[in-house]
């Protein structure tokens, strides 16, 4: 179960990570992160408002860490403010996770999550995977 105190601390940490990696956009300051009672998703972003919703309790699936959920959802927020990155985002090649296979938006958000989690350094396990390397390079030079 996630508390407001945990959520606030995690949001501050992810925002610091994004700023260090120069992925923070001033307009992201308007993003509100809400704690909602219960859901079967880990979290979601309203693409119209750029707000993030995190359930206090997640039903039925193996949970991600709160930090990973926020990193992923901030990836969606990033595309709200930088939609042009999706115009050139790769549509083929290997992806960082099975969930990234869902669609191009989830592919971006998952890559964004791992990019932030690994502080922009490509893990060795992906260094020989051209599709992932290509995506990683795009995040080093977004927009």
Order of helices and strands: HEEEHHHH
- Based on CA atoms alone, the radius of gyration comes out at 15 Å
Major sheet details? 3 strands, mixed
Number of strands: 3
Mean pLDDT: 92
Percent in helix? 40-55%
The helix/strand class is alpha+beta
User: What percentage of the residues does DSSP assign to strands (E)?
Assistant: 5-15%
What is the tally of helical segments?
Answer: 5
Strand order of the largest sheet: 1-3-2
Task: Give the terminus-to-terminus CA distance.
Answer: 36 Å
Low-confidence region ranges: none
Task: Categorize the overall geometry.
Answer: globular
Relevant terms:
143 residues; single chain; three-stranded mixed β-sheet; 3 strands; alpha+beta; 5 helices
Element layout with pairings:
Blueprint: H1 4-20, E1 33-39, E2 44-46, E3 51-58, H2 66-81, H3 84-87, H4 104-117, H5 130-140
Parallel strand pairs: 1-3
Antiparallel strand pairs: 2-3
Helix pairs in contact: 1-2, 2-4, 4-5
């Amino acid at each position: 179960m996630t508390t407001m105190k945990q959520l606030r601390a995690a949001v501050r940490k992810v925002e610091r990570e994004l700023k260090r990696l120069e992925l923070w956009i001033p307009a992201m300051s308007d993003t509100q992160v809400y704690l909602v009672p219960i859901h079967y998703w880990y979290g979601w972003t309203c693409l119209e408002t750029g707000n993030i919703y995190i359930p206090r309790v997640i039903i039925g699936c193996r949970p991600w860490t709160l930090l990973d959920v926020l990193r992923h959802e901030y990836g969606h927020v990033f595309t709200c403010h930088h939609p042009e990155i999706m115009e050139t985002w790769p549509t083929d090649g290997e992806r960082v996770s099975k969930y990234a296979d869902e669609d191009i938006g989830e592919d971006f958000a998952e890559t964004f999550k791992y990019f932030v989690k690994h502080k922009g350094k490509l893990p060795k396990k992906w260094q020989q995977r051209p599709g992932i390397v290509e995506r990683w390079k795009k995040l080093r030079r977004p927009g």
